[in-house]
Write a structure and sequence with these properties.
Strand content: over 45%
Number of strands: 18
Number of helices: 2
Distance between the termini: 32 Å
Structural class: mainly beta
Largest sheet: 6 strands, antiparallel
Shape: globular
Length: 304
């Protein structure tokens, strides 16, 4: 099933009869641990800390021998310690199927997904993504690495103003058994005659500087997979075609000249994936939703 584009919101709840918004004031309580990750003699904990007034900090804690030795507070706080598990999907902004923890409603809503990865033979990290907001959803991502008994912020980013979308996905490295991250960032230009933008960055561990090193994708050893739903003469025509078919609502209006010679100025309806399996799955989903759709997958190995 093709999901609605990134502007989906939670249902309207929590309004008083007079039309005023309820402001949650949580009761004070002990920290609530949502999820634990064990590796290399220590434990990562994703937790909602004790609430203070209307804010309950969401934290990643580093624990050893049942003792918390360091903690990092994430960008977006919760309004309550009551959180429920849900499955993240690609439009959410994290690896599909990973567990996310949702707390609060409407403008106070935040959902947090954490996943562990091995970025070097002896180095384990935690990648954490948050989705927050109501009418205008925003995402942020941070990668934390234990170093000398503390949690080092090895990489972080947040979406800017306007109709942006981002996702962080764990990948296997083609050169070794370590894991890397593919970071997707898209921006939907509001003008009808302008292409939308979707870029992908590779994040790999650089031990010399203790940071994640960024490099653009695709690369010869790590291609991307373009799901192509057809080319149109202009961005405006492509946008109209997408608007007329809800099965295409999650896709982008891209500059076709980025992907093939002789297509400068033309617009392509499609999206990018870091794995062939993910592209195949979305192609099947589009064909199931729209039986007449022609969905092709192109291996993209070098940017033009």
């Amino acid at each position: 099933m093709v999901l609605t584009r990134r502007w989906s919101v939670t249902s309207l709840t929590g309004l008083l009869a007079a039309g005023l918004m309820l402001v949650p004031v949580p009761a004070a309580s002990a920290d609530r641990v949502l999820q634990t990750f064990r590796a290399d003699g220590f434990v990562f904990e994703l937790a909602i800390a004790k609430c203070r007034k209307s804010e309950c900090p969401i934290q990643v804690r580093l624990r050893r021998d049942k003792r918390v030795i360091h903690r990092v507070t994430l960008l977006v706080t919760a309004s309550t310690q009551h959180a429920k598990a849900q499955a993240a999907d690609w439009l959410w902004g994290a690896d599909a199927g990973r567990k996310a923890w949702s707390a609060g409603e409407e403008n106070y809503h935040v959902s947090t997904a954490a996943r562990m990865l091995r970025i070097a033979p002896r180095t384990t990290a935690l990648l954490v993504s948050q989705l927050s907001g109501y009418e205008h959803l925003k995402r942020n991502h941070v990668l934390l690495v234990p170093r000398a008994g503390k949690l080092l912020v090895a990489w972080e980013t947040r979406e800017g103003q306007g109709p942006a979308w981002s996702a962080a996905e764990i990948l296997g490295s083609p050169e070794s058994d370590r894991q890397e991250v593919a970071y997707f960032y898209g921006f939907s230009e509001p003008e009808e005659d302008v292409f939308e933008r979707l870029d992908v960055t590779r994040l790999s561990w650089n031990a010399a500087v203790a940071r994640m090193q960024e490099s653009p994708l695709p690369a010869p050893t790590l291609p991307l997979y373009l799901l192509d739903l057809g080319t149109h003469d202009s961005a405006m025509q492509a946008r109209q075609a997408r608007a007329e078919n809800n099965c295409l609502s999650s896709l982008w209006i891209l500059d076709a000249g980025r992907f093939r010679a002789g297509a400068d100025g033309k617009a392509l309806i499609g999206t990018l994936y870091a794995t062939r399996a993910a592209a195949d799955q979305e192609a099947r989903s589009v064909r199931s939703c729209s039986p007449g759709a022609i969905a092709t997958i192109v291996t993209w190995v070098a940017a033009r």
